Amino acid sequence: MLEDKHKMLNPKCVHFLTLLISLLSLPSPTISQSSSLTNFLHCLHYGSDPMVSQSIYIASNPAFQTILQARIKNRRFLNPETLKPVAIVVPTHIDHVQGTVICAKDNGLQIRIRSGGHDYEGLSYRSNVTFIILDMSNFRSIDIDIKTETAWVQSGATLGELYYHIANKTNTHGFPSGVCPTVGIGGHFSGGGYGNLMRKYGLSVDNILDIIAVDALGNVYDRASMGEDLFWAIRGGGAASFAVVVSYKIKLVRVPNKVTVFTKGFTLEQGATDLVHKWQQIAPNINEELFIRVKLQPSFINGNQTVTVTFIGFFLGRREKLLPIISKTFPELNLTQQDCHEMRWVETTLFWAGFPIGTPIETLLNRTIWTPLFFKNKSDYVKNVIPKESLNKIWKMTMAMMDRNDINKTRFDLECSPYGGKMNVIPESNTPFPHRKGNLFLIQYSFSWIDEGNNVSFNNIEKLRKLYDGMAPYVSKDPRECFLNYRDLDIGSSRSNETSFDDAKIYGRKYFKDNYTRLTKVKASVDPNDFFKYEQSIPPIN
Predict the structure, then answer these.
(1) Is 316 within the bounds of a domain?
(2) What is the CATH number of the domain that holds 191?
(3) DSSP 73
(4) DSSP 227
(5) Which of 176, 229, 333, 453 has the highest count of CB atoms within 10 angstroms of its CB?
(6) What is the span of the domain harbouring residue 89?
(7) What does the pLDDT look like over 462-521, one tens digit per residue?
(8) pTM, rounded to two decimals
(9) How far apart are CA 307 and CA 301, in angstroms?
(10) At which of 410, 441, 471 does a domain end?
(11) pLDDT tens digits, residue range 408-431?
Protein backbone atom coordinates (compact mmCIF):
# COMPACT_ATOMS: atom_id res chain seq x y z
CA MET A 1 0.00 0.00 0.00
CA LEU A 2 1.33 3.44 -0.88
CA GLU A 3 1.67 5.35 2.39
CA ASP A 4 3.38 8.25 0.60
CA LYS A 5 3.10 8.70 -3.14
CA HIS A 6 6.66 10.04 -3.28
CA LYS A 7 8.09 7.23 -1.18
CA MET A 8 11.44 5.96 -2.52
CA LEU A 9 11.95 2.21 -2.79
CA ASN A 10 15.04 0.26 -3.79
CA PRO A 11 14.68 0.20 -7.62
CA LYS A 12 15.42 -2.68 -9.94
CA CYS A 13 16.71 -0.31 -12.57
CA VAL A 14 17.13 -2.74 -15.40
CA HIS A 15 13.35 -2.95 -16.00
CA PHE A 16 12.88 0.79 -15.65
CA LEU A 17 15.78 1.66 -17.97
CA THR A 18 14.49 -0.80 -20.54
CA LEU A 19 11.16 1.02 -20.49
CA LEU A 20 12.81 4.41 -20.91
CA ILE A 21 15.03 3.20 -23.75
CA SER A 22 11.98 1.70 -25.44
CA LEU A 23 10.15 4.97 -24.95
CA LEU A 24 12.82 6.83 -26.89
CA SER A 25 12.17 4.59 -29.89
CA LEU A 26 8.42 5.29 -30.04
CA PRO A 27 7.31 6.54 -33.48
CA SER A 28 6.83 10.33 -33.45
CA PRO A 29 5.14 10.91 -30.10
CA THR A 30 4.06 14.43 -29.32
CA ILE A 31 6.27 16.24 -26.81
CA SER A 32 3.47 16.34 -24.26
CA GLN A 33 2.67 12.64 -24.69
CA SER A 34 6.32 11.63 -24.40
CA SER A 35 6.89 13.84 -21.37
CA SER A 36 3.73 12.67 -19.62
CA LEU A 37 4.53 9.03 -20.24
CA THR A 38 8.18 9.40 -19.15
CA ASN A 39 7.12 11.13 -15.96
CA PHE A 40 4.40 8.52 -15.38
CA LEU A 41 6.89 5.67 -15.73
CA HIS A 42 9.35 7.40 -13.43
CA CYS A 43 6.65 8.09 -10.84
CA LEU A 44 5.30 4.56 -10.94
CA HIS A 45 8.71 2.93 -10.68
CA TYR A 46 9.93 5.00 -7.77
CA GLY A 47 6.61 5.40 -5.96
CA SER A 48 5.51 1.77 -6.03
CA ASP A 49 6.90 -1.75 -5.98
CA PRO A 50 9.82 -1.62 -8.47
CA MET A 51 8.66 -4.93 -9.91
CA VAL A 52 5.70 -3.07 -11.43
CA SER A 53 8.06 -2.27 -14.31
CA GLN A 54 7.57 -5.86 -15.47
CA SER A 55 3.84 -5.19 -15.72
CA ILE A 56 4.07 -2.09 -17.96
CA TYR A 57 3.86 -2.32 -21.73
CA ILE A 58 4.44 0.58 -24.13
CA ALA A 59 4.08 0.62 -27.91
CA SER A 60 7.65 -0.45 -28.68
CA ASN A 61 7.31 -3.56 -26.51
CA PRO A 62 6.82 -6.65 -28.71
CA ALA A 63 4.00 -7.83 -26.43
CA PHE A 64 2.12 -4.53 -26.47
CA GLN A 65 -0.15 -5.26 -29.42
CA THR A 66 -0.89 -8.79 -28.23
CA ILE A 67 -1.88 -7.59 -24.78
CA LEU A 68 -3.95 -4.74 -26.19
CA GLN A 69 -5.89 -6.98 -28.56
CA ALA A 70 -6.27 -9.93 -26.19
CA ARG A 71 -9.29 -8.36 -24.53
CA ILE A 72 -10.79 -6.34 -27.37
CA LYS A 73 -14.04 -8.16 -28.05
CA ASN A 74 -15.51 -5.80 -30.66
CA ARG A 75 -13.62 -5.69 -33.96
CA ARG A 76 -15.09 -2.28 -34.75
CA PHE A 77 -12.33 -0.91 -32.54
CA LEU A 78 -9.50 -2.99 -34.02
CA ASN A 79 -8.64 -0.44 -36.67
CA PRO A 80 -5.97 2.22 -37.34
CA GLU A 81 -8.43 5.03 -36.54
CA THR A 82 -8.85 3.91 -32.90
CA LEU A 83 -6.39 5.80 -30.70
CA LYS A 84 -4.08 3.42 -28.84
CA PRO A 85 -3.04 3.80 -25.20
CA VAL A 86 0.43 5.15 -24.51
CA ALA A 87 0.88 2.33 -22.01
CA ILE A 88 -0.87 -0.73 -20.62
CA VAL A 89 -0.37 -1.59 -16.96
CA VAL A 90 -1.24 -5.18 -16.04
CA PRO A 91 -0.87 -5.09 -12.25
CA THR A 92 -0.19 -8.13 -10.12
CA HIS A 93 -0.48 -6.44 -6.72
CA ILE A 94 -2.74 -3.78 -5.27
CA ASP A 95 0.32 -1.52 -4.85
CA HIS A 96 0.53 -1.41 -8.63
CA VAL A 97 -3.08 -0.29 -8.89
CA GLN A 98 -2.54 2.44 -6.33
CA GLY A 99 0.63 3.61 -8.03
CA THR A 100 -1.01 3.63 -11.47
CA VAL A 101 -3.87 5.81 -10.22
CA ILE A 102 -1.60 8.26 -8.37
CA CYS A 103 0.98 8.58 -11.14
CA ALA A 104 -1.57 8.87 -13.93
CA LYS A 105 -3.39 11.58 -12.02
CA ASP A 106 -0.17 13.48 -11.25
CA ASN A 107 0.84 13.43 -14.91
CA GLY A 108 -2.44 14.23 -16.58
CA LEU A 109 -3.03 10.80 -18.06
CA GLN A 110 -6.50 9.33 -18.29
CA ILE A 111 -7.12 5.77 -17.11
CA ARG A 112 -9.36 3.23 -18.77
CA ILE A 113 -10.06 0.21 -16.54
CA ARG A 114 -10.43 -3.15 -18.25
CA SER A 115 -11.29 -6.54 -16.78
CA GLY A 116 -12.76 -8.74 -19.53
CA GLY A 117 -12.93 -6.23 -22.39
CA HIS A 118 -16.61 -6.81 -23.15
CA ASP A 119 -17.70 -3.17 -22.96
CA TYR A 120 -19.99 -2.98 -26.01
CA GLU A 121 -18.61 0.42 -27.02
CA GLY A 122 -15.00 -0.39 -26.13
CA LEU A 123 -14.77 2.29 -23.45
CA SER A 124 -12.60 0.10 -21.24
CA TYR A 125 -9.76 0.22 -23.78
CA ARG A 126 -10.18 3.28 -26.02
CA SER A 127 -10.33 7.06 -25.65
CA ASN A 128 -9.84 10.16 -27.77
CA VAL A 129 -7.24 11.65 -25.42
CA THR A 130 -3.87 10.45 -24.18
CA PHE A 131 -4.58 7.52 -21.88
CA ILE A 132 -3.35 4.31 -20.32
CA ILE A 133 -5.16 1.02 -19.84
CA LEU A 134 -5.24 -0.46 -16.36
CA ASP A 135 -5.79 -4.10 -17.29
CA MET A 136 -7.00 -6.07 -14.26
CA SER A 137 -6.82 -9.51 -15.89
CA ASN A 138 -4.13 -10.76 -13.48
CA PHE A 139 -6.45 -10.08 -10.54
CA ARG A 140 -8.33 -13.35 -10.94
CA SER A 141 -8.18 -15.19 -7.61
CA ILE A 142 -11.38 -16.76 -6.30
CA ASP A 143 -11.79 -17.95 -2.71
CA ILE A 144 -14.95 -19.96 -1.99
CA ASP A 145 -16.10 -20.43 1.62
CA ILE A 146 -18.98 -22.90 1.65
CA LYS A 147 -19.33 -22.75 5.43
CA THR A 148 -20.37 -19.09 5.26
CA GLU A 149 -21.85 -19.42 1.74
CA THR A 150 -19.67 -16.55 0.53
CA ALA A 151 -16.77 -15.99 -1.85
CA TRP A 152 -14.13 -13.35 -2.55
CA VAL A 153 -13.61 -12.91 -6.28
CA GLN A 154 -11.20 -10.46 -7.89
CA SER A 155 -12.39 -8.15 -10.63
CA GLY A 156 -10.18 -9.62 -13.37
CA ALA A 157 -11.68 -13.10 -13.05
CA THR A 158 -14.33 -14.18 -15.55
CA LEU A 159 -17.85 -15.41 -14.92
CA GLY A 160 -16.82 -18.82 -16.22
CA GLU A 161 -13.96 -19.02 -13.74
CA LEU A 162 -16.30 -18.08 -10.91
CA TYR A 163 -18.83 -20.73 -11.92
CA TYR A 164 -16.11 -23.38 -12.25
CA HIS A 165 -14.64 -22.66 -8.81
CA ILE A 166 -18.06 -22.70 -7.16
CA ALA A 167 -18.77 -26.09 -8.75
CA ASN A 168 -15.43 -27.44 -7.53
CA LYS A 169 -16.61 -26.82 -3.97
CA THR A 170 -20.33 -27.59 -4.14
CA ASN A 171 -23.18 -28.77 -6.33
CA THR A 172 -25.79 -26.95 -4.28
CA HIS A 173 -24.67 -23.34 -4.71
CA GLY A 174 -24.49 -20.92 -7.59
CA PHE A 175 -24.42 -17.22 -8.26
CA PRO A 176 -26.83 -14.96 -10.21
CA SER A 177 -24.79 -13.60 -13.11
CA GLY A 178 -24.64 -13.64 -16.89
CA VAL A 179 -24.52 -16.40 -19.47
CA CYS A 180 -21.30 -15.42 -21.28
CA PRO A 181 -18.43 -17.18 -19.46
CA THR A 182 -15.67 -14.91 -20.80
CA VAL A 183 -17.17 -11.71 -19.39
CA GLY A 184 -15.02 -10.07 -16.71
CA ILE A 185 -16.34 -9.84 -13.16
CA GLY A 186 -15.38 -6.17 -12.81
CA GLY A 187 -17.45 -4.83 -15.68
CA HIS A 188 -20.36 -7.21 -15.20
CA PHE A 189 -20.89 -6.42 -11.52
CA SER A 190 -20.26 -2.73 -12.14
CA GLY A 191 -23.36 -2.42 -14.33
CA GLY A 192 -25.68 -4.64 -12.30
CA GLY A 193 -25.12 -8.10 -13.73
CA TYR A 194 -28.04 -10.41 -14.43
CA GLY A 195 -28.78 -13.92 -15.61
CA ASN A 196 -31.34 -16.69 -15.40
CA LEU A 197 -31.33 -16.71 -11.58
CA MET A 198 -32.52 -13.11 -11.28
CA ARG A 199 -36.21 -13.90 -10.84
CA LYS A 200 -35.28 -16.00 -7.79
CA TYR A 201 -32.29 -14.12 -6.36
CA GLY A 202 -32.08 -10.74 -8.08
CA LEU A 203 -29.01 -9.30 -9.77
CA SER A 204 -25.31 -9.85 -9.12
CA VAL A 205 -25.18 -6.51 -7.28
CA ASP A 206 -28.03 -7.59 -5.00
CA ASN A 207 -25.73 -10.30 -3.69
CA ILE A 208 -22.52 -8.33 -3.06
CA LEU A 209 -21.51 -8.08 0.60
CA ASP A 210 -18.20 -6.21 0.49
CA ILE A 211 -15.82 -4.54 -1.96
CA ILE A 212 -12.11 -3.68 -1.98
CA ALA A 213 -11.44 -0.60 -4.13
CA VAL A 214 -8.81 2.07 -4.82
CA ASP A 215 -10.03 5.67 -4.98
CA ALA A 216 -8.74 8.66 -6.97
CA LEU A 217 -6.18 9.46 -4.24
CA GLY A 218 -4.78 5.94 -4.26
CA ASN A 219 -6.39 4.97 -0.97
CA VAL A 220 -7.59 1.40 -0.43
CA TYR A 221 -11.04 0.94 1.08
CA ASP A 222 -13.37 -1.85 2.05
CA ARG A 223 -17.08 -1.42 2.68
CA ALA A 224 -16.64 -0.31 6.27
CA SER A 225 -14.04 2.34 5.47
CA MET A 226 -15.51 3.62 2.19
CA GLY A 227 -18.97 4.20 3.66
CA GLU A 228 -22.37 3.12 2.43
CA ASP A 229 -22.73 5.85 -0.21
CA LEU A 230 -19.73 4.73 -2.24
CA PHE A 231 -20.58 1.07 -1.62
CA TRP A 232 -24.03 1.79 -3.01
CA ALA A 233 -22.70 3.64 -6.07
CA ILE A 234 -20.23 1.02 -7.26
CA ARG A 235 -22.83 -1.76 -7.17
CA GLY A 236 -24.50 -1.02 -10.48
CA GLY A 237 -23.64 2.65 -11.03
CA GLY A 238 -20.61 2.08 -13.22
CA ALA A 239 -17.70 1.63 -10.82
CA ALA A 240 -15.20 3.15 -13.27
CA SER A 241 -16.71 6.57 -12.51
CA PHE A 242 -15.69 6.30 -8.87
CA ALA A 243 -12.79 3.93 -8.19
CA VAL A 244 -10.86 0.88 -9.31
CA VAL A 245 -12.57 -2.18 -7.87
CA VAL A 246 -10.08 -4.86 -6.94
CA SER A 247 -12.33 -7.56 -5.47
CA TYR A 248 -15.85 -8.39 -4.35
CA LYS A 249 -17.24 -10.48 -1.52
CA ILE A 250 -20.37 -12.17 -2.79
CA LYS A 251 -23.19 -14.16 -1.25
CA LEU A 252 -23.60 -17.56 -2.88
CA VAL A 253 -27.16 -18.73 -3.50
CA ARG A 254 -28.61 -22.18 -3.05
CA VAL A 255 -29.56 -24.36 -6.00
CA PRO A 256 -30.80 -27.98 -6.20
CA ASN A 257 -28.44 -30.85 -7.03
CA LYS A 258 -30.21 -31.09 -10.38
CA VAL A 259 -31.90 -28.33 -12.37
CA THR A 260 -33.69 -28.43 -15.71
CA VAL A 261 -33.14 -26.59 -19.00
CA PHE A 262 -35.01 -26.70 -22.28
CA THR A 263 -35.27 -25.09 -25.71
CA LYS A 264 -38.32 -25.07 -27.93
CA GLY A 265 -38.39 -23.39 -31.34
CA PHE A 266 -41.22 -22.15 -33.56
CA THR A 267 -41.56 -20.16 -36.76
CA LEU A 268 -44.24 -17.60 -37.56
CA GLU A 269 -45.97 -20.25 -39.64
CA GLN A 270 -46.05 -22.53 -36.58
CA GLY A 271 -47.85 -20.01 -34.41
CA ALA A 272 -44.93 -18.08 -32.91
CA THR A 273 -46.92 -14.84 -32.76
CA ASP A 274 -49.58 -16.31 -30.46
CA LEU A 275 -46.89 -17.89 -28.31
CA VAL A 276 -44.90 -14.67 -27.87
CA HIS A 277 -48.09 -12.79 -27.04
CA LYS A 278 -48.90 -15.37 -24.35
CA TRP A 279 -45.30 -15.46 -23.11
CA GLN A 280 -45.43 -11.74 -22.29
CA GLN A 281 -48.29 -12.40 -19.88
CA ILE A 282 -46.90 -15.61 -18.40
CA ALA A 283 -43.11 -15.26 -18.09
CA PRO A 284 -42.96 -12.27 -15.66
CA ASN A 285 -45.65 -13.77 -13.40
CA ILE A 286 -44.86 -17.46 -13.37
CA ASN A 287 -43.10 -19.37 -10.56
CA GLU A 288 -39.95 -17.38 -9.67
CA GLU A 289 -37.84 -20.53 -9.95
CA LEU A 290 -38.59 -20.60 -13.68
CA PHE A 291 -36.91 -18.30 -16.22
CA ILE A 292 -37.97 -18.45 -19.88
CA ARG A 293 -36.09 -16.26 -22.33
CA VAL A 294 -37.35 -15.63 -25.87
CA LYS A 295 -34.90 -15.23 -28.74
CA LEU A 296 -36.12 -13.89 -32.08
CA GLN A 297 -34.06 -14.31 -35.26
CA PRO A 298 -34.76 -13.59 -38.93
CA SER A 299 -34.22 -16.75 -40.95
CA PHE A 300 -34.76 -18.40 -44.31
CA ILE A 301 -36.48 -21.79 -44.43
CA ASN A 302 -36.94 -23.51 -47.79
CA GLY A 303 -36.12 -20.21 -49.44
CA ASN A 304 -38.81 -18.28 -47.59
CA GLN A 305 -38.05 -15.59 -45.03
CA THR A 306 -39.58 -15.88 -41.59
CA VAL A 307 -38.78 -15.24 -37.95
CA THR A 308 -37.66 -18.11 -35.74
CA VAL A 309 -38.69 -17.81 -32.10
CA THR A 310 -36.84 -19.92 -29.54
CA PHE A 311 -37.99 -20.34 -25.94
CA ILE A 312 -35.01 -21.10 -23.69
CA GLY A 313 -35.87 -22.22 -20.18
CA PHE A 314 -34.13 -22.67 -16.84
CA PHE A 315 -35.85 -24.22 -13.80
CA LEU A 316 -34.57 -24.70 -10.27
CA GLY A 317 -35.84 -28.26 -9.97
CA ARG A 318 -36.44 -31.55 -11.74
CA ARG A 319 -38.51 -32.01 -14.90
CA GLU A 320 -41.34 -33.78 -13.07
CA LYS A 321 -41.98 -30.57 -11.13
CA LEU A 322 -41.47 -28.30 -14.16
CA LEU A 323 -43.84 -30.02 -16.59
CA PRO A 324 -47.03 -29.57 -14.50
CA ILE A 325 -46.20 -25.85 -14.09
CA ILE A 326 -45.86 -25.41 -17.85
CA SER A 327 -48.90 -27.57 -18.53
CA LYS A 328 -51.02 -25.35 -16.27
CA THR A 329 -49.69 -21.91 -17.22
CA PHE A 330 -48.32 -22.24 -20.75
CA PRO A 331 -49.74 -25.42 -22.35
CA GLU A 332 -49.38 -23.89 -25.83
CA LEU A 333 -45.63 -24.42 -25.51
CA ASN A 334 -46.27 -28.17 -25.76
CA LEU A 335 -43.23 -28.95 -23.64
CA THR A 336 -42.40 -32.66 -23.30
CA GLN A 337 -40.04 -34.73 -21.20
CA GLN A 338 -37.81 -35.14 -24.25
CA ASP A 339 -37.43 -31.34 -24.48
CA CYS A 340 -36.16 -31.15 -20.88
CA HIS A 341 -32.61 -31.88 -19.77
CA GLU A 342 -31.58 -32.31 -16.14
CA MET A 343 -28.05 -31.41 -15.09
CA ARG A 344 -25.97 -29.71 -12.44
CA TRP A 345 -26.26 -25.94 -12.18
CA VAL A 346 -22.69 -25.43 -13.43
CA GLU A 347 -23.48 -27.46 -16.55
CA THR A 348 -26.40 -25.15 -17.33
CA THR A 349 -23.97 -22.24 -17.60
CA LEU A 350 -22.40 -24.00 -20.59
CA PHE A 351 -25.81 -24.85 -22.05
CA TRP A 352 -26.89 -21.20 -21.85
CA ALA A 353 -23.62 -20.12 -23.46
CA GLY A 354 -24.52 -22.26 -26.49
CA PHE A 355 -22.31 -25.30 -25.90
CA PRO A 356 -23.56 -28.86 -26.55
CA ILE A 357 -24.85 -30.81 -23.58
CA GLY A 358 -21.97 -32.77 -22.09
CA THR A 359 -19.31 -30.12 -22.74
CA PRO A 360 -16.64 -30.42 -19.99
CA ILE A 361 -16.92 -27.72 -17.35
CA GLU A 362 -13.21 -26.96 -17.81
CA THR A 363 -14.37 -25.05 -20.92
CA LEU A 364 -15.48 -22.34 -18.49
CA LEU A 365 -11.81 -21.57 -17.84
CA ASN A 366 -11.09 -20.76 -21.47
CA ARG A 367 -10.91 -16.98 -21.88
CA THR A 368 -10.65 -17.09 -25.69
CA ILE A 369 -13.55 -19.34 -26.66
CA TRP A 370 -14.93 -17.15 -29.42
CA THR A 371 -13.36 -15.15 -32.23
CA PRO A 372 -14.26 -11.44 -31.89
CA LEU A 373 -16.81 -10.07 -34.36
CA PHE A 374 -17.93 -6.63 -35.46
CA PHE A 375 -21.08 -5.79 -33.52
CA LYS A 376 -23.46 -3.18 -32.19
CA ASN A 377 -25.99 -3.78 -29.40
CA LYS A 378 -28.83 -1.80 -27.87
CA SER A 379 -31.40 -2.35 -25.11
CA ASP A 380 -34.98 -1.54 -24.12
CA TYR A 381 -37.48 -2.23 -21.34
CA VAL A 382 -41.08 -3.28 -21.99
CA LYS A 383 -43.74 -2.39 -19.42
CA ASN A 384 -46.94 -3.32 -21.26
CA VAL A 385 -47.93 -6.38 -23.26
CA ILE A 386 -47.28 -5.78 -26.97
CA PRO A 387 -50.46 -6.59 -28.98
CA LYS A 388 -50.40 -9.20 -31.73
CA GLU A 389 -50.84 -6.65 -34.49
CA SER A 390 -47.80 -4.80 -33.18
CA LEU A 391 -45.82 -8.03 -32.98
CA ASN A 392 -46.49 -8.49 -36.69
CA LYS A 393 -44.95 -5.08 -37.32
CA ILE A 394 -41.94 -6.09 -35.23
CA TRP A 395 -41.54 -9.27 -37.31
CA LYS A 396 -41.34 -7.16 -40.47
CA MET A 397 -38.70 -4.90 -38.93
CA THR A 398 -36.79 -7.96 -37.74
CA MET A 399 -36.80 -9.56 -41.19
CA ALA A 400 -35.56 -6.28 -42.70
CA MET A 401 -32.33 -6.74 -40.73
CA MET A 402 -31.24 -9.51 -43.10
CA ASP A 403 -31.60 -10.53 -46.74
CA ARG A 404 -30.54 -13.68 -48.56
CA ASN A 405 -27.07 -12.35 -49.27
CA ASP A 406 -26.49 -11.77 -45.56
CA ILE A 407 -27.19 -15.30 -44.32
CA ASN A 408 -23.55 -16.22 -43.75
CA LYS A 409 -22.29 -12.69 -43.10
CA THR A 410 -24.52 -11.20 -40.41
CA ARG A 411 -26.53 -12.29 -37.40
CA PHE A 412 -29.34 -10.47 -35.65
CA ASP A 413 -30.88 -11.55 -32.34
CA LEU A 414 -33.64 -9.89 -30.38
CA GLU A 415 -33.50 -11.40 -26.89
CA CYS A 416 -36.28 -10.88 -24.35
CA SER A 417 -35.52 -11.70 -20.69
CA PRO A 418 -38.47 -11.76 -18.25
CA TYR A 419 -38.54 -9.83 -15.01
CA GLY A 420 -40.89 -10.33 -12.07
CA GLY A 421 -40.19 -12.46 -9.02
CA LYS A 422 -37.41 -11.04 -6.84
CA MET A 423 -37.00 -8.14 -9.25
CA ASN A 424 -40.43 -6.88 -8.20
CA VAL A 425 -39.53 -6.95 -4.51
CA ILE A 426 -36.23 -5.04 -4.41
CA PRO A 427 -36.79 -1.24 -4.37
CA GLU A 428 -35.49 0.85 -7.28
CA SER A 429 -33.26 2.84 -4.93
CA ASN A 430 -31.65 -0.19 -3.29
CA THR A 431 -28.79 -0.03 -5.80
CA PRO A 432 -28.17 2.38 -8.70
CA PHE A 433 -29.78 -0.20 -11.02
CA PRO A 434 -33.40 1.07 -11.13
CA HIS A 435 -35.17 -1.27 -13.56
CA ARG A 436 -37.26 -3.25 -11.11
CA LYS A 437 -41.01 -3.51 -10.54
CA GLY A 438 -43.17 -2.53 -13.50
CA ASN A 439 -40.99 -4.09 -16.19
CA LEU A 440 -42.25 -7.15 -18.02
CA PHE A 441 -39.00 -7.89 -19.79
CA LEU A 442 -35.67 -6.55 -20.99
CA ILE A 443 -34.81 -6.52 -24.70
CA GLN A 444 -31.29 -6.83 -26.04
CA TYR A 445 -30.80 -6.12 -29.73
CA SER A 446 -27.61 -7.79 -30.99
CA PHE A 447 -26.33 -7.27 -34.52
CA SER A 448 -22.99 -8.77 -35.58
CA TRP A 449 -21.17 -9.14 -38.89
CA ILE A 450 -17.91 -10.48 -40.31
CA ASP A 451 -17.17 -8.20 -43.28
CA GLU A 452 -14.59 -5.49 -42.67
CA GLY A 453 -14.77 -1.84 -43.64
CA ASN A 454 -16.11 1.35 -42.14
CA ASN A 455 -18.90 1.50 -44.72
CA VAL A 456 -20.07 -1.98 -43.77
CA SER A 457 -20.13 -1.05 -40.09
CA PHE A 458 -21.90 2.24 -40.78
CA ASN A 459 -24.63 0.60 -42.86
CA ASN A 460 -25.22 -2.19 -40.35
CA ILE A 461 -25.37 0.20 -37.41
CA GLU A 462 -27.87 2.35 -39.33
CA LYS A 463 -30.03 -0.74 -39.88
CA LEU A 464 -30.08 -1.40 -36.15
CA ARG A 465 -30.83 2.22 -35.35
CA LYS A 466 -33.78 2.16 -37.73
CA LEU A 467 -35.21 -0.92 -36.00
CA TYR A 468 -34.60 0.67 -32.59
CA ASP A 469 -36.48 3.79 -33.67
CA GLY A 470 -39.32 1.61 -34.89
CA MET A 471 -39.58 -0.09 -31.49
CA ALA A 472 -40.23 3.21 -29.68
CA PRO A 473 -44.04 2.82 -29.41
CA TYR A 474 -43.71 -0.50 -27.56
CA VAL A 475 -41.11 0.26 -24.90
CA SER A 476 -40.54 2.49 -21.86
CA LYS A 477 -40.80 6.26 -22.22
CA ASP A 478 -39.69 9.41 -20.38
CA PRO A 479 -37.02 8.22 -20.12
CA ARG A 480 -36.58 5.42 -22.62
CA GLU A 481 -34.69 3.16 -20.23
CA CYS A 482 -31.48 1.33 -21.08
CA PHE A 483 -29.28 -1.24 -19.33
CA LEU A 484 -25.76 -0.08 -18.44
CA ASN A 485 -24.19 -3.50 -19.10
CA TYR A 486 -25.48 -3.15 -22.68
CA ARG A 487 -23.67 0.13 -23.19
CA ASP A 488 -24.87 2.27 -26.07
CA LEU A 489 -23.30 5.61 -26.99
CA ASP A 490 -26.29 6.43 -29.21
CA ILE A 491 -28.32 7.39 -26.13
CA GLY A 492 -25.94 10.24 -25.27
CA SER A 493 -22.32 10.80 -24.37
CA SER A 494 -19.74 13.36 -23.26
CA ARG A 495 -16.30 14.03 -24.70
CA SER A 496 -13.46 11.77 -23.61
CA ASN A 497 -11.76 14.46 -21.55
CA GLU A 498 -14.71 16.40 -20.16
CA THR A 499 -17.91 15.04 -18.65
CA SER A 500 -20.65 17.54 -19.39
CA PHE A 501 -23.24 17.60 -16.62
CA ASP A 502 -26.03 18.38 -19.10
CA ASP A 503 -24.96 15.63 -21.50
CA ALA A 504 -24.53 13.16 -18.66
CA LYS A 505 -28.04 13.84 -17.39
CA ILE A 506 -29.42 12.55 -20.70
CA TYR A 507 -27.77 9.13 -20.60
CA GLY A 508 -27.67 9.07 -16.80
CA ARG A 509 -31.44 9.15 -16.45
CA LYS A 510 -31.85 6.43 -19.08
CA TYR A 511 -29.47 4.14 -17.24
CA PHE A 512 -30.29 5.09 -13.65
CA LYS A 513 -33.59 7.04 -13.62
CA ASP A 514 -33.99 8.90 -10.31
CA ASN A 515 -30.84 7.28 -8.91
CA TYR A 516 -28.73 9.45 -11.22
CA THR A 517 -28.86 12.46 -8.88
CA ARG A 518 -27.57 10.48 -5.92
CA LEU A 519 -24.76 9.11 -8.08
CA THR A 520 -23.60 12.64 -8.94
CA LYS A 521 -23.56 13.51 -5.23
CA VAL A 522 -21.47 10.45 -4.40
CA LYS A 523 -19.13 11.36 -7.26
CA ALA A 524 -18.71 14.88 -5.85
CA SER A 525 -17.76 13.48 -2.46
CA VAL A 526 -15.25 10.84 -3.60
CA ASP A 527 -13.84 12.25 -6.87
CA PRO A 528 -14.67 15.97 -7.01
CA ASN A 529 -11.98 16.68 -9.62
CA ASP A 530 -13.44 14.03 -11.93
CA PHE A 531 -10.30 11.98 -12.43
CA PHE A 532 -12.25 8.81 -13.24
CA LYS A 533 -14.08 9.78 -16.41
CA TYR A 534 -15.07 8.40 -19.77
CA GLU A 535 -17.72 9.10 -22.40
CA GLN A 536 -20.61 7.92 -20.22
CA SER A 537 -19.22 8.48 -16.74
CA ILE A 538 -20.99 10.13 -13.82
CA PRO A 539 -19.97 13.79 -13.27
CA PRO A 540 -19.72 15.43 -9.84
CA ILE A 541 -22.83 17.48 -9.17
CA ASN A 542 -22.34 21.22 -9.78
Answers:
(1) yes
(2) 3.30.465.10
(3) -
(4) -
(5) 176
(6) 34-135
(7) 999 999 999 999 999 999 999 999 999 999 998 877 888 889 999 999 999 999 999 999
(8) 0.93
(9) 9
(10) 471
(11) 899 999 999 999 999 999 999 999
